[in-house]
Specification:
Shape: globular
Order of helices and strands: EEEHHEEEEHHEHEEEEE
Number of helices: 5
Bound molecules: zinc ion
């Protein structure tokens, strides 16, 4: 397997504007009632270039951008700096990031400068399960979460060299799994709205996306076994899954729209699955059917 070099500069694609929707895709308030804002699908700060016009009210935008900021700063800041992804507003990425080292006193932060030896690594919350809804799991089932480090195949060697003298990384002190899940749910929901339109499905995640500090939603968010990489900075696709579903007559199947998401797809990052909704009306035959027989 071959990987793309992570060091080459990531050229941003021009922004692609989709829509307009004309109402808030989270709370359904319409453009005649409040002013609507354009919604970035993958956050601008992660190099997202898809925008859904007039799709969020200001109140929902405040909630979703809070979760996105946490995803960017707590989880992805290190990776963003190494691959030089910056938001459009701030032309240059910050040359430093604050990290906590295990050798430091509690709460101490060290400023780390980025140079050519800095490894591309990022910690991410994962499970080793498909979303519960695709496994006929009870909605109360709590997935086992863990924090894994992702990076190029030699990141360990590179990372150890780079970390020498700095002690050992203490990732994870600021992780809030529920808020990371919320940001992923927001990306997936807005992507589904951009591709098939918010009227084409019964949304499953709006309450979760707008909640204050929810626990991780393993019923709708999980991962998919994968390898390989994509040339894109991020990879996102809407698919449909035939989810097993218990009824009084036994097991039946129902269609569920699922967004397949890989952030930093040019490296072996996790493939996240987010179940976003159930179809209203006919299924579009152009949407790929997901193979749920893949195992971990
Ligand atoms: Zn709203």
């Amino acid at each position: 397997m071959e990987f793309l070099p992570y060091r080459y500069p990531r050229v941003r694609s021009p922004t692609q504007k989709l829509g307009p929707i004309g109402y808030c895709i989270y709370c359904s308030v319409t453009g005649s009632e409040v002013q609507l804002t354009d919604e970035h699908i993958v956050p601008d700060g992660l190099g997202g270039d898809l925008v859904l016009a007039q799709a969020s009210c200001k109140s929902c935008a405040a909630k979703t951008s809070r979760a996105e900021r946490r995803l960017q700063k707590d989880v992805m800041q290190f990776a963003r700096n190494v691959v030089r992804v910056s938001s459009r507003k701030r032309k240059k990425p910050e040359p430093f990031v604050s990290v906590e080292f295990e050798s430091s006193n509690d709460g101490d932060e060290t400023k780390v400068a980025f140079n050519d030896d800095t490894p591309f690594i990022f910690p991410f919350i994962t499970t080793d399960e498909l979303p519960g809804i695709l496994r006929n799991a009870n909605g109360d089932h709590v997935p086992k979460l863990r924090i894994s480090l992702f990076g190029p195949p030699n990141w360990n060697e590179q990372g150890q060299k780079w970390l020498k003298g700095n002690g050992k990384f203490k990732w994870g002190t600021r992780f809030h799994a529920g808020i990371v899940g919320q940001a992923l749910a927001k990306i997936a929901h807005s992507y589904a709205c951009a591709t098939i339109g918010p009227g084409a499905f019964e949304p499953l995640l709006n309450e979760y996306i707008l909640a204050k500090e929810p626990p991780f939603d393993g019923h709708h968010i999980g991962i998919y076994p994968s390898d390989g990489f994509d040339k894109a900075l991020h990879y996102i696709d809407l698919q449909v899954a035939n989810a097993p579903h218990k009824t009084v007559l036994g097991l039946s199947y129902r269609a569920v729209y699922v967004v397949y998401l890989r952030l930093f797809a040019f490296q072996p990052s996790p493939s996240i699955l987010v179940a976003v909704g159930t179809p209203k009306g006919e299924l579009n035959p152009a949407i790929k059917m997901m193979d749920l027989t893949q195992t971990f």
